[in-house]
């Protein structure tokens, strides 16, 4: 689409706002099965509001079917038919955001077309659904409801319209972006990226998630760290019971500040300026119990001041010069080569090769182009990435006397 072409606002689905399907899920499945071709899929969650990352609404659209909005709450045991009919190619935007909650419901695609990945492979400056849709189709989608409470029932018409619009144009985007990828000679690259997302294993949860709040608050006292750890666990239990996002129970900043004050008594907690609202004061026994547990811990049971969950065999890059000068030199050469190649291809450097993969190769070292390619492959790089970067990185490192 030309930059001079005026955009057109699309605030309501062109076929009207679809009804929400719950009890009549079997009828919806039959209707979806009567359509043909890939299926546009999206979800709406209530992150930051509810405890879980579950899907509170599933939007699907197919040629010959139109858009169907599915409320999966309470019918999770009746989704067998939907699982079967959805064993097709899915068109999604930012698939890595939606696939986990769909997997929780037993819904899996056989192939993925990710419009966000397509935009990244084409070097788009902005890759949000709204930005891509506007650039490719000329339609402007409203995005003012993205942070709404999708767990509320019934969902009001403005939210339903917003949800339906998220899949309204995905088929058109797929067609246009496919043409652009083929013309750019990058469709095979794109397919490899989509398959990686489809098969990606879920990230393991942090073993000590409270550590981030401690670093942000600058907590170093080991007793205070223990209090934060206990308060974090207590808050998580409350959040799970109430089905609320933990930050809705007590924000991380408040949790860390309370731990940093190291209250000596329940009254210290009650009188704390941090617990101003009635609900926060209502939980004072929970907070004091957690703090008291931390006070009673033996010194040897207190958490260490420094902790890292990184499994990387290398230290932070800014320390490489002290630990291994050869690795530091390889990193400088490798890094500059990737940045230059990414610039030539019009790609973000992390799309061309993830920094973690680059670091592993630089730290490990290699003696031949084949060795370097093997490192990249073992670290999860896709064939197209290996083909693009391996030769230039090896040549530049050899010319610099690093091999």
TrEMBL record:
It comes from the Bacteria. It is an enzyme of class 3 (hydrolase). Residues 221-301 form the HRDC domain. Its EC number is 3.1.13.5. InterPro entries: 3'-5'_exonuclease_dom, Exo_C, HRDC-like_sf, HRDC_dom, HRDC_dom_sf, RNase_D-like, RNaseH-like_sf, RNaseH_sf. SUPFAM superfamilies: HRDC-like, Ribonuclease H-like. Keywords: Hydrolase. GO terms for molecular function: ribonuclease D activity. This is Ribonuclease D. The lineage of its organism: Bacteria, Bacillati, Actinomycetota, Actinomycetes, Actinomycetales.
